[in-house]
Amino acid sequence: MSKNMIQKPQPTGEYAVGTFTYTVYNDREETMYNAIGTKRSIPVKVYYPVTKESVKELPKARYMSKATIDALRKNFFIPLNYEKVESDGTNRSECYENAPFIEGERFPLIMFNHGYSSFMAAHTFLYIELASHGYIVATVGHPYEGLITELDDGTIFKKAKGITSKVYSPMIPGVMEFMKIQKAKGTNEELWQRFDAAQKKYCGFLIERVHEWELDTKAALKVLKDKYSDKIDFAKGIGITGHSMGGATAYALCEDEPETFTCGINIDGALFGNHDGKFITTPFLQMNCENNKTVVTVAFVKNKNVAYHAILKDMQHLGFSDMKYAIPFKSQVGKLDPAIAHDTVCNIHLEFFDTYLKKTKDEPLGTGSVAHFFTFDPWGRG
Question: What whole-number distance in Å separates Cα of residue 141 and Cα of residue 56?
Fold first, then answer.
């Protein structure tokens, strides 16, 4: 990305894309350690298909807020200047605020959760691409655990101080153990047993937070069911996807509530969570870089449906997000060309959800030379 510019891939679907936001203010007690005694507030941003004719006279929606850009500059040393990208028009997404819905049509719903210490806009290009192909996408924010979380009334929650030290506790031996697991060899069962022992020893906080993120997602979904059932097609269930911690949340919701969340994708997330005595009974796809293929094997060991594994070459963890266009360090985003990475991640999503949510295809086709694409049988013996 050239200095002070935001590159944006163009959506390829037949629809233009509208967007709106809402916040869930509920009576649920906040359990984050820095906010005990308050109520949990959950921001949601929705992307949805609209006709191209209906948006011809509308301005494009803002991509990132000043608070988000400031947080990114501070944490990743990205050469973005908010005033510059506002004045030159590059801080605009290929979508339109509050564009009119298509009357009389319903579209299937995909829910999305960002990664830990990430933010809601981090996968905007993926949301827009999915919406342009006839999906409604709702992305959920998680106060105090995102890099920055913004409500639609302007309230801003910054990442809680000290939260990094809680992810692995104690930090140094925890990080070292998971680095060893990334390089470990063994069967799916052996890798899962080693991962589960390590998460129970070092990651109790994350295990608890997966459950809270499940509750956040269900609270966001309740509003969509109550207010937008005439716009959303719930007949075939709901798809769910997410990056990193959001991918672990997607897996947990498919595992815990398969009648609601009928298919899901994990984008390069270690599958933290309490999986004791549980099996997953929905179609599920893992999308990983090479470094993280060993921390997702529970999805193959404890799967009673079809399981897929797409391993992307020359990718790193942050390369699965929009940050591949912004972060200059290949060690963080990988060597894969950003445009190819974007197309691959989007195409895997479309192939999978077209098969298991829209049910317009017989099976996902894979992604050619960029990704190794494997299918596992229902008991993980692929």
Answer: 30
